[in-house]
Every structure is written in structure tokens, then in C-alpha cells.
Amino acid sequence: MNVFLKEVLDALFPKDFTCDICGRETFGTNICDDCAKTLIFNDKDKCPVCGRKTVRSEFCIECKAKPPTYKMAASAFVYEGSAAYLIKKFKNGGSYLKDYLADRICKAVKDFPEYDCIVCVPMTRRSKSRRGYNQSELLAKAVAARVGKPYIKGAVEKRKETGEQKELTRKERSKNLAGCFRVVKRDAVKGKRVLVVDDILTTGATADEMAKALLKAGATAVYLATAASVEYKFNGKDKPRAK
Ligand SMILES: [Zn+2]
Ligand SMILES: [Zn+2]
Predict the structure, then answer these.
(1) Residues 23 and 93 in one domain
(2) Between the CA of residue 105 and those of 73, 78, 99, 199, 238, what are the distances in Å?
(3) Residue 24: nearest ligand to its CA?
(4) What is the Å distance from ligand 2's center to 72 Cα?
């Protein structure tokens, strides 16, 4: 877009004065009252481990079958409807939504056990330059500033591109992600309880791989906080295996 035109549009529709969901005028908030009612907060029935919405408040079958490497996860929203729209917008140019989302993430983790520092899920340099920013990094920094914990910049790096994972099952994702994260700042995470902040939890495979790398580098526990997570739906495939 022409820079001048963009400036004119920004002046006419300042981002804090229009609703990010319906586009209507608001007064200094990102979401208007009507749209706020359509956001589904993930604060009711959920799995106590992965934090995904479940039918009843109980362990989801995946966590029951094989507990994840991270200790506990929580998310602000259920990834559907308006919340999904908002997060897609945040990932595709709407980086300013980081503050709105970070506020909600902080609420979601307020009952978490104590943790020492915060890291983000890294992107490869190529992916980051394609998008212009790493959405996980923006959220992690914003959450750290709010809770007053150190954000460890560049703690972990992503060594290889893992491509689109949307169509993959948890098992396939794990295989695809195996060994893709490497802790660069080992001294900063050694002996620490680390909170990983990300945008979405789908199967938890990314969080699990991050946790593996952090524990290997000497972290004592890994927690996860995301802006949203998908509802856990039993698909009949991942039955608990007898071990
Ligand atoms: Zn609205
Ligand atoms: Zn679970």
C-alpha cells in the first residue's frame, strides 16, 4: 500500500479506536463490547495438563496415555470463531494485538506454580523475515513485562524449517519436529523453571519438543502459556496404550 495512503487510513481508523473483529468504532479498546461476548474464554472444563477444553474437567485421553514433557499448559481462549479470527489477524500483520492477547494470557496463568523466566518458541530466520515478526516472541516479551519476570531473548533457536503442520496428527507432528529446537543460552535456563509463551496450542507437539530441548539443557520444569488452544476432541484414534 502507498505509504501516504496508509498514513491517512491509520489516522482515520486508528487501531485502538476500531474493533479488530467487526471494524466498528470503539473507545480505546481493541474489541467492542458485542464482539467481546463472542470470544470463548478457555476458563471452564479443560484438561489439567494440556489446558485444552474438554467435555468435562478431566485429563484428555492424550495426556492420560502419554503425559507431555511440559508440566502444565494454559490458554486464554478456545481457538474458534472470533478468537481464531483475532489470532489469525495477529499473525498476519496485526502485531499490535500482542498487548490485548498478553493481558489475557496473564489472566490464564495467574494460578500457575512459580516460574523463573520466560522464553518464546523460535522461528527460523527465513520464516521470521517472511512474516516480519515472530508472534510468539512478541507475546513472550509482553507477558514478561506484565508479570515482571526476565524474558530470555534468543534462548532457543530453530534449526530447520518444519513446514505447515495443520494436516498432521500429533504423532506425525512430533516426528516432523524432532530435534528442531536447540537451546543456545544454556546458562540462562539451567536450574530454572521456564515458561514458554506461544500463540496457539494445537496438539501440544511443539510445546513438547521445546520442553525436551529445555530440560536437556538443564531447566528443571517447563510450563506453557498460549493465547488460544483448540478444543480437545476424541477422534477414536489415540486410545491410551498399555505400557
Ligand atoms: Zn466488534
Ligand atoms: Zn490434555
Answers:
(1) no
(2) 11, 12, 10, 10, 29
(3) 1
(4) 9
